[in-house]
Every structure is written in C-alpha cells, then in structure tokens.
C-alpha cells in the first residue's frame, strides 16, 4: 500500500468532483495533460489578482515582485532537472517549442548536408516533424531506431546506425503511446562516443521519473508544464551552457536584445537571448507551485503508487477476452494502450465517455509508431497519482459494457 493519502490528494484537484454524463469523472487521460491542484489554480489567481506586471524592465513594486516570482520558477525548474546553472533553463511554450528551438538554432547553424540525425520509432510527432523540416532545408538524413514487438528500442540497431556522420540524436525518454521507458543514459553515452549531441524529449518522463540532466549528461532536455500538474502553454528547455551560448537566437524581439540600432543589434545573455517578447508570466510563476506540489508528495512515492496502478490495471485488463495490451516494454510508466478485437478505438472512447471515463483513442500523435505496429490506433488509459484502484475497476466494467454494446 502507498504511503500517500490518495483521498487527501484527490481533494487537492477540484476537477475530480465533476460529474460527466451524470457519473463521477474518471480521468485516465493524464498522458495528454494532467489536472491541476488548487495550489496551482491559486497561484494563477493570486498573480493576476495581486501582482500582475510585465517583468524585467520595470522598476516599480509590482514589476519587481512579478520578476522575482518568474525567476524563482526558473530556479525551481533548474533544481527539478538538476541543471548546473540557472541560465541553462530556457522558458518555452512547451516541449514542441523547445524541440523546434533546438532544431531551428543548433540544427540550422551546426548541421549540414549529409549529416545524420537519429530519432526513434517511438517519437511523438513533435520530435519528428521539426527534424524533417530541418532535413528538408539542410539536406540532412533522418534515421530511425526500430523497436521490437514489445515496444522496446532495439539498441543493437541503434549502435549500428552510429557513425562519424551522426551529428544529432533526439529521442523520447518515455513513450506517450506505449509507456516505454527508454535507456537514455546508454543512448546518450553511445551518441557522445561518436561526437553527436543529444536531445531528450522528457514530456512524459517529467511527472514520473526523477531527472538529473548532469548524471545523464544530456545536451538538451525538454518538457511541458501541463503534463506535470502545471499550466498549459509553458515548458522548459535545458541546454548545456556552452551549447546555448554557441547557438544563434531563435525569435527576435524585445527582451532578447542587449542593444538595438538600425545598423546592428547585439543579443542578450543566457537565458534571455532565447526568450523574445513578453513571456507567459502567470503560467511560469505557477509552475513552481506544481513542482513544489510534486516534491511535497515525493517523486519516488508517486512513481511507486503509479506502479501499483499499472500492475493492477495490466492484470485486470489482460483478463478481458479479446483485449490486447499494446506495449509490453520491460520498463514502463503508468500508461496502458490496448486494442479490442473487432471494435474500433473510437467506439471504445465514446462508450467509456458515456460512463464518465476519459481515455484517449487514436494514434496519440505517433502515426509512424502505429504504422509499425500495424494498427490504426489504440485506446489509452494513463494514470496519475490521484487515480485509484476503484477507478480501474470502473474501467474494466466499462470495457465489458463496450463489448456488450458493440459485439
Ligand atoms: C505531449 C508530448 C509532446 C508534446 O508536448 P506539447 O506540450 O504538446 O508541446 C511531445 N512528446 C511527448 C512524448 C509528449 O507526450
């Protein structure tokens, strides 16, 4: 049994009291976005209600208060990822934004025709398309690490791909579609042996796994606040200081400059060089409260409890006739994708929704992965710390109902 008081945790998330189609909400779509605890909602209201001001340039009281709250969040993220320097944390609009930033700055400056970029079959579209765009522009070659039928990367194939032509490796830490936890430390090590730089897409990992970018020796690491109980439209890019310093700016505008004349503009220092325009101040401020909330529960406690949910759900779902769990990797987070014989995932989603159960259906922004698995999509239940065994029982009952209604 978990040492966390799950009922008490549930009270921190007001949305869990919602009724959907007259039923208690069962929210199993946490891999798409997590719900927000009161501390985060209060932080947003408090910011707008009491110290809303534009940051950095103001000298009045509110501007300074907003600036220090904003920068405290940067420090919280630095600690969350165990980055060495605060200026290695670039505040972005999310994972997608962070990957595009690296592709469009590091990629455009340092990659050239014939260079190889390696991604994996498990990637989210946001870690595929920015690299394809770069390849199209620069004439680089995209290579893809294959997976086995369980949803594990085939590392021998990855090692065979690596050569002096490999200049960049960009892989997902945890698959949003299958839950696979990738051995990123080894992946990074091998890439560094041939001199390639590595970006890790941590969108799914950040809420489940303790991240230490220094131990991992990641060159870049990205995540989104909205998947760790924080607000939407906010995220962070970690980059090693020397790399970030060598990269040209991404967007031009206010904040990212030191001095502007019509002849020439000089750019601001890290991290501001990459933060043009007024940022998402309220959401940045609030993310610190999300991180504090996670730290308060303890990531190891969260992971242990989510694992209980995963084990129980895997057991219960496996017993349903005609149900196949897609993705049986050795190391997984609490994400279960499944298909039901003769039933389209869309129908599963609609009928579960009628019972108040929110799951995701479709390709989960991983169309190439679905093609590899030769399925159009799956139904996916993804669990967070506020979910319960009773809710999983409801899911199981719900799936039986789906079968009765469709078959
Ligand atoms: C959600 C997700 C993304 C995209 O995150 P955004 O917040 O939409 O930018 C990328 N990769 C993975 C693995 C994800 O789960």
TrEMBL record:
Its cofactor is pyridoxal 5'-phosphate. The keyword Ligase does not apply. Pfam families: Aminotran_5. The keyword Ion transport does not apply. Gene3D superfamilies: Aspartate Aminotransferase, domain 1, Type I PLP-dependent aspartate aminotransferase-like (Major domain). Keywords: Pyridoxal phosphate, Transferase. InterPro entries: Aminotrans_V_dom, Cys_dSase_SufS, Cysteine_dSase, PyrdxlP-dep_Trfase, PyrdxlP-dep_Trfase_major, PyrdxlP-dep_Trfase_small. It catalyses: (sulfur carrier)-H + L-cysteine = (sulfur carrier)-SH + L-alanine. It comes from the Bacteria. NCBIfam families: sufS. Catalyzes the removal of elemental sulfur and selenium atoms from L-cysteine, L-cystine, L-selenocysteine, and L-selenocystine to produce L-alanine. This is Probable cysteine desulfurase. It comes from Emticicia aquatica. The gene is sufS.
